[in-house]
Amino acid sequence: MKLPFHFAPVVVLLVTGACGRAGQAAPVTAPAPVAAKPTPMAATVTAPVPTTDRATPDEVVSTVVAVFGDSAVLNPIDSARAADDPIWDIDVRSYETHDRVEHYVGLFSNSAKERFLARLSRGTRYEPMIRAKLQASGMPEDLTYLALIESGYDPHAYSRAAAVGMWQFMSGTARDVGMRVDWWMDERRDPARSTDGAIRFLRDLQKQFGSLYLAAAAYNGGPGRVARGLTRFASELDGAEGEDRFFALAEQDYLRAETKNYVPQIIAAALVAKMPARYGLVIDSLPLYGYDSVLVTPGTSLAHLVTASGATKAEVRDLNPAILRGITPPDASIWARIPVGLADRTRLALDSLPEGDRRGYRMASVSGSTTTPAGFADRHGVTLKQLRWFNPTIKTTKKGRLLSGQSLRIPSDVAIDFAREIPDPRIERYGGSSSSTTLTSRGIHVVKRGESLGAIAKRYGTTVTRLKSLNGIKGSRVIAGQTLRVRTSTATASSTSSAKKASAKKSTAKKSTVKKKSAPPKKTASSKKKTPPKK
């Protein structure tokens, strides 16, 4: 589970602590291709390409509708015009006078004004896409400000705990919600894919806790900590309803400071961002985020995609931040992204290529038993670092020599030019437990909405009185998301110990009932039977 960190010790803008564990991985869906024939092909830098103009306004609208489901994202409401009568779909007004909220409103509109403006400006590129996806999922659109607080809408944000991307996922949680995170790809860096994952995770957390702000707190500090807090302070939270439950829990000396401040930051960001004129802010807008997708074969270089599409290097790099090493994964065809309106041009160029020109590398075999990785790299005109970029599992002997017979990838210069020098995404500072032990097996029950102590007691074959005693509960009210111990660990250990003792006693009794057999008499030479010789 990821631990949260502030972007700066004084100006608290970017809390890069997000995700604990999620449930089962959601199915991965490919991005919707627009005007692209779903035939896996690749591109090369020498491919002939037909001359095709950029997309017309109608084509852009058509593509945006296909990608986001609504052309309204092309015309977001101007924040200055909306300032007179803003509408939020999260509860902002109830808490705008809260001490912590007022603190961050002042911070965002005064001492941290320039930093906050820069992040709001970056958000104008991605916010329409995020809002469209949130709306389609039935989640509040203003949850977009969670990404603002997490990373400032930076797809390449990287925390000290190795949380990555706009939504600051740890690698384990990202995989749980359906993203690919490995040496070749890190979809946490992809704005659209990571937004899909964040929505799935937040939706699950909201179902668990029955509160949007508790879900946000769990997103930041971990579901387990929030659930334990609801149990530990059940009596103190008695009477708190809805979103008040987060603020009631935050008043206890339990949540980390980052988590206590996380929801107030989201509320403050929503207040300032939707009423910029009131706070003296003028937000610069960036071009909207949009793309077409073309299916390409394994190992295709992004440089080849540039030539096939006619897009610039900067455009292709920007639209494919999840591709880490300059080539698409060598083990799978994927949907690569290109600027809107270039799908037909790219597909035709890809179709014209010979099979041998579709990869950004060539293969070379290791011969002999004295070759070092550095020597092999030098022989093939690349550095050792570049060789390792494209061969993460080089096999060597104990003496550091390359094992003979293995084949290694030798990247092309153009593929190297697109490779990103970043750490292995699988390595993180604060990972989740590798134990497969579930809460239920440890005698823990997570309260679901509508459940009562009586129903829970009946389910586990115990009594309400016993549950109250185990969990230190005075009243009879339980809250969704709260964790309850339904049996003691000592009782479990005791029963296990008793079972072992009983088993041992039974084994001893069994041994005592078996009569000891006397040893057979030794045979003497005279007592041995004579065996007739074989014929």
Structure description:
With 535 residues, the protein is mainly alpha-helical. Helices cover 40% and strands 5% of the residues. It has 20 helices and six strands. Strands 1-2 form a two-stranded antiparallel ribbon. The protein is globular, with a radius of gyration of 31 Å. The termini are far apart. Mean pLDDT is 79; it is low at 1-53, 69-82, 431-438, 489-500 and 508-535.
Could you outline the blueprint of secondary structure elements for this entry?
Layout: H1 57-68, H2 79-82, H3 99-109, H4 113-137, H5 144-151, H6 171-176, H7 191-209, H8 212-221, H9 223-232, H10 244-250, H11 257-274, E1 292-296, H12 302-309, H13 313-319, E2 334-338, H14 343-351, E3 361-365, H15 373-379, H16 384-390, E4 407-411, H17 413-418, E5 444-446, H18 453-459, H19 464-471, E6 483-485, H20 489-512
Antiparallel strand pairs: 1-2, 3-4, 5-6
